[in-house]
C-alpha cells in the first residue's frame, strides 16, 4: 500500500500529516482515549487489549457519542485470519408492535425515552474479545477508563460543542422524571461543560469496576442488571433483567467483495456494511482515472443511492432477511443495478435480487494483530435514559425498527434491528492492509466507499483519504456536500439533476480513522481526520 502523498492525484493539502509507527498504533476521535490504548500496548497488551481499553475510555471522554449502554461491532485480524464480532443487542421480550401502538405510537418508535432501548451489547462484547484474543485481564485493560471517570478529564473542543448541542436540545425535549438522571450525570452544573473544563462521573467509574471485576457478568446477571430492571419497571419501560441475561455477543463470518485487487470486508447484517459492499460492486464496473471529476462523483452517488435503498429494504436481523448478502453482492445483480445509472440523477427504488452518535477506533500491534472497532449509543447520547448512580447512558437502537408488519425490519420481541455502525477492513491476498472506519449514522457506508476509492483508485495516503472533501446522499436526489468541494463540481452535479446542499460549516460527514500496515516492514501508517479531536497514538 503506497502511503505517500501524490500532489498530482490529490491537489488539496491534508489537514494533518500521516503518523508512522512500528510497535503499535491506536487511532480514534479523542486523544486521551488513543493514548490510553497506546499505554496498554506498552504494558504488554496486544491490539485487542488496546482496542478494549480505548473503547472503554471513549465511554468516559466522549459520552456525546457512546456509553456503557452502547452496542458495538468488531473486525479482528489475528494469525492471518479475520474474525467478526456482532455486539448488538435484541429487542426486549415485552417490546412489540402491539405494545408500542397501545402506548400511542402509531407510525414509528419514539426517538428518546424508555421505549427505543434495546439490550446493550458492549460490556459483554468487551469481555468476549478479551476472553478470546486478549493478553491482559479486564481489570487492567479498563483501568485507564476508570481513572478518567473517577478523577476527571479536561473536555476537548469538539466534544464541548456536541455536548452543549445535546444539552440545548434535551432541555427542551426532556420533561419527564425518567430523564432527570441524564441531567444530573452529564450537566451537574446546570449546563454542558466547556472546552478545557474538568468533568468526572463517579457512578461511571463504579460501573466500570464491576464490569472489569466480573468480566461484565454483573451488568447482565448481577447488581447492575437489577438496577436497570428496577429503573425500567419504575417508568414503564420494556427492558428487563431476563432480556439482559439472555444476551450473548455473536462471532460471525465477515462478508467481502473484491475491489480492484483488494478485498473489502464488513460485518454481515444486521449491520449496514452490506450497503458499502454493494456500492463498490456496482462501481467496480467502471474505470475511474480522475478523482475530482463530475463523472466520478455522479457515478459514486448513483451507485450509493441504489445500494442504500436496497439496504433500507432488506437489512435486518439475519434470521428474518428475505434475501441473502450473496444475492445482493452477486455479479448479475451488480450489473443489473449498474445499468440503471445514466447521465442524470435518479430517484432510487429497491431492486429484486435473486432470492437465496458513534465512535470508531483502529488498533494495531507490532505482532501483526489489528482491530477495527465501532461503538455507539446512536444519535449522540442515545435515548436520554441514564440509570441513576451508574453513569450508564442507554442507546436507542430500537428507533430503527419499523412498525409496519410487512417490512423486513419490522419490530419483533427478541429481534435485532437494522444497525448503522460498521467497522471496515482491507486485505490484499493473504495479507492485512488494515482497519478503517467512518462514524456517523447513515453516512458510514458512504464514508467507507469514499475512503476505499480514495485509497485504491486514487492512491491517497491514509490522512489524505480522510481529509478529502465528502458528500452524503440523504434521500431522493438530495446530496449534501462539504464546502471544501470545488464549486465547479457542485454546479456540474446540479446540472445533472442532483439537489446539491452545501454545508459551509460542520455537516453530517462523519469522522474516521485508518491504519495501514506495510507487510514487508511491519511499519504502520495512520490517519485521523480534521472533523474531530482525534489523534493517532504511535509507538
Give a quick account of the main beta sheet: strands, pairing sense, barrel closure.
7 strands, antiparallel
The strands making up the biggest β-sheet line up spatially as 1-20-19-15-14-9-8
Mean pLDDT: 94
User: Level of helix content?
Assistant: 25-40%
Described by the principal axes of the CA atoms, the overall outline is globular
Strand content: 15-25%
Treating each run of at least 4 consecutive H or I residues as one helix, how many helices? 19
What is the end-to-end distance?
20 Å
How much is the radius of gyration in Å?
Answer: 22 Å
Give the number of DSSP strands: 21
Secondary-structure-based class equals: alpha+beta
Residue runs with pLDDT of under 50 for 5 or more positions = 3-12
Compact description:
The protein has about 550 residues and is α+β, with helices and mostly antiparallel strands. It has 19 helices and 21 strands.
Keywords:
single chain, 539 residues, alpha+beta, 7-stranded antiparallel β-sheet, globular
Report on the structure:
The model is unreliable at about 5-10 (pLDDT under 50). Helix content is about 35%, strand content about 20%. The chain has a 7-stranded antiparallel sheet with strand order 1-20-19-15-14-9-8. A 7-stranded antiparallel sheet has the order 7-4-3-11-10-2-21, with helices on one face. It has a 3-stranded mixed sheet with strand order 16-17-18, covered by helices on one side. α2 (about 45-60) runs parallel beside α6 (about 145-150). It is of the alpha+beta class and about 550 residues long. It has a domain at about 20-245 and about 360-400.
